[in-house]
Amino acid sequence: QVQLVESGGGLVQAGGSLRLSCRASGIIFSINTMGWYRQVPGKQRDLVASIASGGSTNYADSAKGRFTISRDNAKNTVFLQMNSLKPEDTAVYFCQYRPYGGAYSGSNFWGRGTQVTVSS
């Protein structure tokens, strides 16, 4: 099994920055994707950004140019640097891990989420 622990959420004014971190522990396959999703009450969980173990990245249109995803493979940790935050970025942000190998290949593992609130 895999455990994901997020940190770095909080309250920030519009235009400010936050850096989210998520560390994965347990049985970690070297080939995997880690990412960040966000969810507001009553809506589906949407992709913000993802990064493969090889380094390729994928961003939602809303995140392009403002957010940067990165990872430290040696520490099984993924980061999301969020700049120029807007009130509409307010959501619970969830860390995601998807291995490509083993019994759980292709399955999603989720963290508990961290609240990001951007005030206007």
Task: Describe what you observe in this structure.
- With 120 residues, this protein is mainly β.
- The protein has no helices and eleven strands.
- It has strands at 2-7, 10-13, 18-26, 32-39, 46-52, 57-59, 67-72, 77-82, 91-99, 109-110, 114-119.
- Strands 2, 4, 5, 6, 9, 10 and 11 form a seven-stranded mixed beta sheet that branches. Strands 1-3-8-7 form a four-stranded antiparallel beta sheet, with no helix packed on it.
- A hairpin with a 6-residue loop joins strand 4 and strand 5 (46-52).
- It is globular and about 45 Å long.
How many distinct helices? 0
**Shape, per Cα inertia axes:** globular
Structural class: mainly beta
Task: Provide the residue-averaged pLDDT.
Answer: 96
Strand element count: 11
Write the layout of secondary structure elements.
Layout: E1 2-7, E2 10-13, E3 18-26, E4 32-39, E5 46-52, E6 57-59, E7 67-72, E8 77-82, E9 91-99, E10 109-110, E11 114-119
Which terms would index this structure?
55% strand, four-stranded antiparallel beta sheet, 120 residues, mainly beta, 11 strands, seven-stranded mixed beta sheet
Structure at a glance:
With 120 residues, this protein is mostly beta strands. It has strands at residues 2-7, 10-13, 18-26, 32-39, 46-52, 57-59, 67-72, 77-82, 91-99, 109-110, 114-119.
